[in-house]
Structure formats: C-alpha cells, structure tokens
Amino acid sequence: MSPIQIQLLYDNIPGAPGTKALWGFAAIITFGSADKRQRLLFDTGSNGRVLLANMAALGVAPTGIDWLFLSHQHWDHIGGLDSVLELNPGIKCVLHQGFSKHLMGDLDDLGIAYQIVADDPLEFTPGLHSTGLLASEPPEQALVLETPDGATVISGCAHPGMSALVAKANGFLPAPARRAIGGFHLMYSDGEAIEQEIQALRQLGITEVLATHCTGEAGIAAFARAFGEQARVGGAGAQWRL
Hints:
CATH class: Alpha Beta
Number of helices: 7
Distance between the termini: 11 Å
InterPro entries: DHPS-like_MBL-fold, Metallo-B-lactamas, Metallo-beta-lactamase_dom, RibonucZ/Hydroxyglut_hydro
Largest sheet: 7 strands, mixed
Strand order of the largest sheet: 6-5-4-3-2-1-13
GO molecular function, one term: hydrolase activity
Domain Metallo-beta-lactamase: 25-213
CATH architecture: 4-Layer Sandwich
Number of strands: 13
Strand content: 25-35%
Organism: Thiorhodovibrio frisius
Shape: globular
Keywords: Hydrolase
Number of domains: 1
C-alpha cells in the first residue's frame, strides 16, 4: 500500500498562505494502492464557501473525493456538507445513528449514498474504520487509519474524550494506536484535566499528536510541551504522511 497522506483543510488555527482560518475542522485523507488511490473527506468545517476556497488553495478537487466521514452533527463540522454534495453527489457518506433522521431523509431525497454506523466498530473500506458511536453530547464517532507502524485516530471534537476514542480503537486494533489528530475538546478544561488527558493518551500508546481546533490554546501548548517534536502544528495545509 502507498503511504497515507493526511492534510488539514479547515481549522480555526491559522494555516498555509491563501487559506482562511474559521471555527471548525476538516481534513482530507489519501490512501490505497498506487494504482487505485482514494480520498476521504473528514468533516466539512462550518462554512462551505470557505471549505471550497481552502480546498482550491491547497489543490484538492471536490469531485475527486470518494468518501465523506462525518464525526458528529455540530454545525462547525457539517456546515460545508451541502457545498460538497452539490459538486460531488456520487460521494459515499459514513454517518452514525446519532445523526438526525431528517438529515438522513434529505440525503435519501437527494440520492446520496450513505452508511450508518451503530455502537460497534466498522471497517467500511479496507484499512479504514469507524470506532463506532460513543455516547456524548452530541454522540460522536472517530476515524481510525491502519498503517504498518501503528494506527492513527482522527477526531472531530472528541466530545467523549480523545482517550475514550483511542481506547475504543485499541479494543479492535492488532496493536495500540500511535497517533491522535483533531480537536481534543479541552478548551474549557483546567490544567489538571489537560494533564490527565495527556497521561491517559500516553498510557494508551499515543506517541505523536496533532491537537487543534477545540483543544484550546492552553491544551495545544500543554501537548507541545509533553510531546515535543512529536506534537504537530495544526492549521489548513498541515500535512502528515504515514
């Protein structure tokens, strides 16, 4: 299998020149064999026009995306949904059963293909899994990417806790996940709670992180201190090759 590439497309952390920072999160994952590369869009940020502009600035064509994985139903993660579907109605969506039945009905009416994830983990295409639905407010799923040197867990906001998402992933992976990426939902947490989450992730086997979006400034700084060079910086355009 060719290397997996992860690139952030949307973030409230300032990113590459030509991109706009706005509250929300989205990333593009490129995976598969050399002769059959596929692309998955993880979440869609809060604003479709900004998402599409950032994609254009980073050379990502909406029509070249095969999958759309939505972590949860908050506005800052599905705000660009209609913009993506308008340009790419053939995309395959991965939702969970905590999403609104009205949203699913609209997708039916538009003829959009989608798959519903329940509580159990689901490998929806080889090497890519949903953790399954975790209870939180709102309910959330995370994406898990298998690679030879250890898996990567990508969250939208980690409302259940990033450590809970990683623990769920470790329950079905052959070896503990190594990397955690996304929003860690620590923006309202004090220093003690942030440190507890860092230690929990270390104990679960996480050695590399990219904490951004709703992690908060104090949380991002704490992860940078704890993980040093193994703490990546967010912002649209940030890349990670696995």
